[in-house]
């Protein structure tokens, strides 16, 4: 099963740390990053994907949300 997540935030060291942590947790970058300006800060986003062996590796809240979509 593939797991998707999209990280967003201010373009700073904290955002880089979140992406780095996700990469070290087994996620891979998916597509190009996005960037916008909200008038004060540059806001960036990055889609990420992870292949998991079974649903037990997915958080309960995400499993519940997936079940609601079906």
How would you sum up this structure, described in words?
The protein has helices at residues 13-24, 60-69, and strands spanning 2-10, 28-37, 42-51. The chain is α+β, with helices and mostly antiparallel strands and 70 residues long. A 3-stranded antiparallel β-sheet has the order 1-3-2, with helices on one face. β2 (28-37) and β3 (42-51) form a beta hairpin.
List the helices and strands and how they pair.
Elements: E1 2-10, H1 13-24, E2 28-37, E3 42-51, H2 60-69
Antiparallel strand pairs: 1-3, 2-3
Can you tag this structure with a few keywords?
3 strands; elongated; alpha+beta; 70 residues
End-to-end CA span: 15 Å
Output the number of helix runs.
Answer: 2
**Average pLDDT, all residues:** 92
The major β-sheet equals: 3 strands, antiparallel
Strand tally is: 3
* Rounded Rg: 14 Å
Sheet with the most strands: spatial strand order: 1-3-2
- Share of β-strand residues: 35-45%
Question: Percent helix among the residues?
Answer: 25-40%
Characterize the overall form.
elongated
Low-confidence stretches: none
Helical/strand content category = alpha+beta
Order of helices and strands: EHEEH
Condensed summary:
This protein has two helices and three strands, in the order βαββα. It has 70 residues and is α+β, with helices and mostly antiparallel strands.
